[in-house]
Amino acid sequence: MTTTVLAGRNALVTGAGTGIGRAIARALAGAGARVFVTDIDALAAERAAAEIGPAAGAARLDVTSAAETDAVFAAAIDAFGRLDIVCANAGISTMQRVVDLTEAEWDANMAVNAKGVFLTDRAAVRHFLARGGGGAIVNTASLAGKVGAALLAHYSASKFAVVGFTQALAREVARDAIRVNCVCPGFVRTSMQARELEWEAKLRGMTPDAVRAEYVSLTPLGRLEEPEDVADAVVFLASDAARFMTGQAVLVDGGIYMG
Length: 259
Ligand SMILES: NC(=O)c1ccc[n+]([C@@H]2O[C@H](COP(=O)([O-])OP(=O)(O)OC[C@H]3O[C@@H](n4cnc5c(N)ncnc54)[C@H](O)[C@@H]3O)[C@@H](O)[C@H]2O)c1
Fold this sequence. Notes:
It contains eight helices and seven strands, in the order E-H-E-H-E-H-E-H-E-H-E-H-H-H-E.
């Protein structure tokens, strides 16, 4: 989708080297924003920024590090003058039954998916408050942040945390003209999904193709979700078209969950 609804705005996206984050960065740029692409994989961030064009910035950012987050925000603000839109998208997943789940898996999912969103949003809010005039935050939660997903209890818990955090922060900063929302994607065709197909197939004694077919059959709109399906919703939430929306967890899942 190419529009100019974000012309003159500056955005920072985490986990934007590939998958949904890369699509978000491209869609924000397609809508006229200047985009700072960040990822724990520095090369992936640079590649994604190069695809967007010379106006895009890039940096390595591990969202589990407060020091790195604050330093990258400072660099982006220095490069662009200000930020208007921040998308806390970075996330990881593993699949395991709770009876076999390790503390390390629990901690890793919580660190990236929940703490990472807190650290990114904190840096965004500090900047928006310091410069005045508000801003827009769009976090990436998940369908698994709305309904518990088997084999993904730890991931579900981390994504419910994102939804709760989004609501609480939205209430705290609404009077400062800062809107905070999140998107809840379904079964999105990314490298994360490719890994999950393998894990789920193994855990349930199926083939990855059979698991993929099940994802499609669970989706009323009848296909796997594409990263761009999520990205267009993020552009909307980041734009003035969503000016009276805050604290929302917007399902972008092809109709899997209608709640
Ligand atoms: N793929 C899906 O079906 C799906 C569904 C719902 C929600 N999500 C969420 O969407 C987001 C993006 O997922 P995706 O499918 O594009 O995954 P992906 O694995 O394809 O891409 C994730 C990106 O995040 C980066 N990353 C990982 N750990 C990081 C860290 N500590 N700091 C910064 N960057 C880090 C990776 O390098 C990668 O570039 C995640 O939050 C994920 O939980 C995905």
